[in-house]
Design a protein that fits this description.
CATH architecture of the largest domain: Alpha-Beta Complex
Number of domains: 5
Number of helices: 26
CATH superfamily of the largest domain: Creatinase/methionine aminopeptidase superfamily
Oligomer: single chain
Shape: extended
Number of strands: 39
Strand content: 15-25%
């Protein structure tokens, strides 16, 4: 809780590297503390120094820890490269480049008033080593010194880097002045952290623990469960990217303030090095029975460090498990000994005492220290937790308590498990009462470190099993439950196998039933659907039936015939008529002196709402694409354009209304009675044109339908016989309570044609709450407001429930039995996230449909019209998959839901089986337009075997009986089809190569078998890049890209200049 509160606090203005300005308040505070510490321990820690010199090295991309850089960061909140600072009692001499002088110049006045110390800046010219400036600084120090012997304290252990620091080192050594090492003084100065520094350490520790818990643990569990081969070095790279992007683990920290303390460490397979300076090798992660995995990582926030290390034991025997238990107890003892007033050595001695008492044979293998202090430096050796350090602990110190057993030996084991090591590390803050473990967010308990994948061990009495567990794993605490979900869903256990076999058996029964129904109803059209009845196709566009009907005019100008809906264009002195529906765009260009009227026409291949149906039948003819006219009368040109657009809007409206089905007349209830069923203050979607959401309306139930009225002129009638599905969704996850009607035939809402009409109320006013000042958690006004919101939500839901019950009672009357109407409530519990349309939304199943009713466009998929469901991109290593609904009417487009998280995979399969839906699994995306076209054109395919090509058991690719990874690769049905399509120019591929980003991320983690050569893989990658389109692109657009790429690959190689355009062949 304290860590979360620290994350919510407002940051101090001295965050550091991201800001070019230096906080005067922070610098003065640190300067006062520095001079006070120097005066108090001048003879002891500061070696009686009369001046202290600190030189910072130049910039470097390497991770390095130096006291000079730590002191610069502590003073200024940033690193000042190639800077020499010399502190005396009265002056501070700073030699740096002009940029650094500009940063420090505003501090001079503040420091002079607050500390009575003058800052003297020496600007270093570009290319100069500053030798003359150094002489001036040393002379000034000698002249202001009260004693005859001047002692200059410096960091003797830091080797000079760069020509400036080398020149300074030579000046000091050749000056004849006495030099002393003040590293101890600076270490003690930085040992105790103030409130701001502690907050930075807490943020860094929370980030480190979050990455381990939310990413590293789940990543390792998934790799082990999927039995994949992943190198240690790849795990290091992936974890480092997560550390540098805190939002990926739901940690709201600015990425520019975050860095790594060292590259994350992953070790297994008998090769262990328990030092932060160690590196991950390129060996694959080893997780066979009896193995151990050691991981360690550290993060910095505003240059303050944190660290955590954990060890995971895979199917280990009692010897290794007991060693881990001893280490954990010793680690806890070392942490508990960190109390103010105690000696630093007490921590290590407490750990040694536990090991000597529990397992004395392990004492020689214990690390020589229990960690070090941590802060701006990752290893503050001044506070090393060893048995010889007698310094006193103080409140506010922070330690990296790191303890381990190095190079333990196990008998009767393979060479990779014979030598093993154990490592635990945590970031700990010394507090007044008891130590605070800042990385306790990731557990180190035995149940969280021991993993059992062996069924025989899981069945042994020594392993406790959870009552509700479906897999053989040790019982976990509540904290670990969410971390173990991916593992529980993927462990290879007998219960998982039985469940999968039961599901396959149920799917076989569903297929048999559906085959029988399809045989009895071969036309698949015996439903009571009214869908599409009464639709009238738009005929061929004709402006004039014969040439004599064209109006004669001697004027050479553009004219508009409103009666015949035509535009007359003068072309070579002849008036040529065009129907307004053939015009795609008309606009005016040019200035006041010369006006150009540009008219663009519809041609084959262009998309427009007003198209002539004859474009497809006459696609081989020559069409006029555009015409431009010069006009001297701008007013006349504007009138022509405006009139053309007005006629087009009228034609569009008439065509839209012509496709509507005439409905029966609404029978209104007689008079105003108390028993009138209605809901008031409802909004409607789609909204009325021009009004938006200015006024709510009332929904009233009449004899044979609903009527919604927002005003006298704005009414919508919904007949009971036109309702296909009705839904009631209370406000549970969302902020609205709604009624949704999915219709058989389109109706007009204002000037919009729609098949989905929704009425809703917002249960919470989300607009007024934006921008309000933050209140306290226990603010009485805030509590009262939340109480009112809960009551409002409950009251609105209750009103809708009463309305739904009364309407259901009406629909239960015998006269409405044929309609089979009833309000359905979607199951929020079984919902999942997916991409429908162009955005991610929450999709929920209803008793007869799969719906998404909150965001537009709505999704209502009737399950009784679905023939099969195909789960695409289902493969090891994938983070998400797609779901495609194929309807019994093969002429309908499929419904696709993309990027569904793999965590919902098992639950969706269970729901499909419970809904008697036949589903198939595919590793690739299919081009369903071509698949359905091929099935419809093949009369020999019946309802039973037309989907057999999707059955993984019938193909070679999906076989689970592959015995070894070295087995020869055999292509699946889809692969064979794809390869044959590349060879045959007349065939079409049914495999869709366009996949989402999650699929590509997953394929990076999947090792796979090296069955193809590099040249072959590069060729396929180039083809995939050409075929790849936007995720939101339609299936037609993706198909056009694939056909275009295929045509380019089959085109003969003719010499052609780079960048020249291909000429289209003209047919006469």
């Amino acid at each position: 809780m304290a860590i979360l509160q620290a994350l919510q606090q407002t940051s101090s203005p001295i965050t550091g590297s991201s800001s070019s300005a230096v906080s005067p308040e922070n610098f003065i505070k640190c300067l006062k503390k520095f001079y006070h510490h120097w005066k108090e321990d001048k003879s002891n820690l500061w070696e009686s120094s009369s001046a202290i010199a600190v030189a910072t090295p130049p910039l470097s991309d390497d991770i390095r820890y130096k006291k000079s850089l730590a002191l610069s960061m502590w003073f200024f909140g940033r690193e000042l490269p190639e800077t020499i600072m010399l502190f005396t009692d009265r002056q501070i001499h700073v030699m740096c480049k002009q940029k650094g002088c500009d940063v420090l110049k505003p501090l001079k006045i503040h420091v002079s008033k607050a500390v009575s110390v003058d800052i003297v800046l020496h600007s270093l010219a570009k290319g100069d080593n500053g030798s003359s400036l150094m002489d001036d600084i040393l002379r000034a120090v000698c002249s202001h010194s009260e004693s005859k012997s001047v002692v200059i304290g410096h960091l003797a252990r830091e080797k000079p880097q760069g020509k400036v620091l080398e020149a300074w080192s030579e000046k000091l050594n050749g000056s004849g002045l006495r030099l002393s090492d003040v590293s101890s003084g600076i270490s003690d100065l930085l040992a105790v952290k103030d409130a701001t520094e502690i907050m930075y350490v807490k943020k860094a520790a929370y980030l480190t623990a979050s990455v381990v818990r939310k990413y590293v643990v789940s990543k390792l569990e998934k790799i082990i469960a999927d039995e994949r081969k992943v190198p240690h070095s790849k795990l290091t790279d992936l974890t480092q990217k997560i550390l540098l992007s805190p939002l990926k683990v739901d940690v709201k920290l600015k990425a520019e303030n975050v860095d790594i303390c060292y590259p994350p460490i992953f070790q297994s397979g008998g090769k262990y090095d328990l030092r932060p300076s160690a590196s991950s090798n390129s060996d694959d992660l080893y997780y066979d029975s009896g193995s151990l995995i050691v991981c360690a990582l550290g993060a910095k926030y505003s240059s303050y460090c944190s660290n955590v290390a954990r060890t995971f034991l895979i199917d280990c025997d009692g010897e290794k498990c007991n060693a881990y238990k001893v280490l954990r107890q010793a680690h806890d003892a070392a942490i508990a000994a960190l109390k103010p007033g105690s000696k630093v050595s007490d921590s290590y001695q407490a750990a040694v005492s536990v090991v000597r008492d529990k397992a004395p044979e392990l004492v020689p293998f214990l690390t020589k220290s229990a960690g070090t202090g941590i802060g701006l430096e990752f290893r503050e050796t001044w506070l090393s937790l060893n048995e010889k350090n007698d310094r006193i602990l103080k409140e506010g110190m922070v330690f990296n308590v790191s303890l381990g057993f190095q190079n333990l030996l196990e008998k009767n084991s393979d060479y990779k498990n014979k030598e093993y090591s154990l490592w635990l590390a945590d970031t700990v803050l010394v507090c007044k009462e008891k130590p605070h473990v800042l990385t306790a967010f990731v557990s180190k308990a035995d149940d969280d470190a021991f993993y059992s994948f062996d069924e025989e061990k899981a069945e042994s009495p020594s392993v406790k099993l959870s009552l509700n567990a479906q897999v053989m794993v040790p019982e976990k605490p509540v904290l670990k439950e969410e971390l173990m979900l991916p593992l529980k869903e993927n462990l290879r256990s007998r219960s998982r196998t039985a469940k999968e076999d039961l599901r396959k058996q149920l799917q076989a029964e569903i297929l048999q039933k559906r085959t029988a129904v399809t045989a009895m109803n071969s036309n698949a059209s015996n439903q009571k659907s009214l869908e599409g009845r009464g639709l009238r196709a738009v005929g061929e566009l004709v402006a004039y039936k014969k040439a004599s009907d064209i109006p004669c005019s001697n004027l050479s100008e553009i004219q508009v015939d409103k009666q015949n809906e035509a535009i007359l264009l003068p072309i070579y002195g002849v008036i040529v008529p065009f129907h307004v529906c053939t015009v795609k765009k008309a606009e005016i260009r040019g200035d006041s002196s010369r006006v150009f009227v540009c008219i663009t026409f519809n041609v084959p291949g262009t998309a427009s709402n007003l198209q002539d149906p004859s474009l497809k039948t006459n696609a081989n003819r020559i069409f006029l694409k555009a015409a431009t006219f010069i006009s001297k009368d701008r007013k006349h040109a504007e009138e022509v354009i405006q009139l053309t657009r007005t006629i087009q809007r009228g034609v569009t409206e008439r065509a839209r209304r012509a496709s509507l089905v005439s409905q029966e007349r609404l029978q209104l209830c007689a008079g105003m009675t108390r028993d009138r069923i209605q809901l008031m203050d409802l909004w409607i979607r789609p909204t009325f044109a021009g009004r938006g959401r200015k006024a709510p309306g009332t929904l009233v139930v009449h004899v044979n339908g609903f009527q919604y009225s927002a005003s006298k002129s704005e009414k919508v009638d919904i007949m009971f016989c036109n309702i296909k599905h009705a839904f009631f969704q209370p406000a549970v996850r969302e902020m609205i309570t709604l009624l949704h009607f999915h219709l058989y035939n389109d109706i007009m809402v204002g000037n919009k044609k729609t098949r989905d009409v929704q009425f809703y109320i917002e249960v919470m006013d989300t607009v007024e709450s934006v921008g309000l000042s933050r209140r306290l958690a226990w603010d009485p006004d805030e509590i009262e407001e939340e109480k009112r919101e809960r009551e409002r939500r409950k009251g609105i839901n209750m009103q809708f429930e009463v309305f739904v019950k009364r309407v259901n009672s009406i629909w239960s009357q015998p006269k409405f039995d044929q309609l089979s109407l009833q309000f359905e409530t979607p199951s929020q519990k079984h919902g999942f996230n997916g991409v429908h349309g162009r955005s991610t939304c929450f999709i929920v199943p209803a008793p007869s449909c799969l719906v998404q009713l909150v965001e537009s466009p709505f999704l209502v998929t009737s399950l009784r019209e679905v023939d099969i469901v195909c789960l695409e991109r289902v493969a090891l290593g994938q983070k998400s998959f797609d779901m495609v609904f194929v309807f019994q009417d093969l002429s309908r487009d499929v419904v696709r839901i993309e990027v569904i998280p793999m965590t919902s995979y098992e639950e969706i399969k269970d729901w499909l089986s419970q809904s008697n839906m036949k589903y198939y699994e595919s590793k690739l995306n299919l081009s369903w337009r071509k698949v359905l076209k091929q099935i419809m054109n093949d009369p020999e395919l019946d309802g039973k075997n037309r989907w057999e090509f999707l059955n993984p058991d019938a193909s070679d690719s999906g076989s689970e009986s592959s015995e070894t990874e070295d087995e020869q690769y055999e292509p699946s049905d889809a692969d064979s089809c794809s390869e044959s399509d590349d060879e045959d120019s007349g065939s079409e591929s049914v495999v869709d190569s366009s996949q989402d980003d999650d699929a590509m991320d997953g394929s990076e983690d999947d090792d796979g078998d090296a069955a193809e050569s590099w040249d072959e893989m590069e060729r396929k990658a180039r083809e995939a890049d050409m075929e790849m389109g936007s995720e939101s692109a339609s299936e037609d657009e993706r198909q056009r890209r694939r056909e275009k790429a295929l045509a380019k690959s089959r085109r003969p190689n003719h010499p052609q200049a780079k960048g020249s355009a291909q000429k289209r062949q003209r047919t006469n």
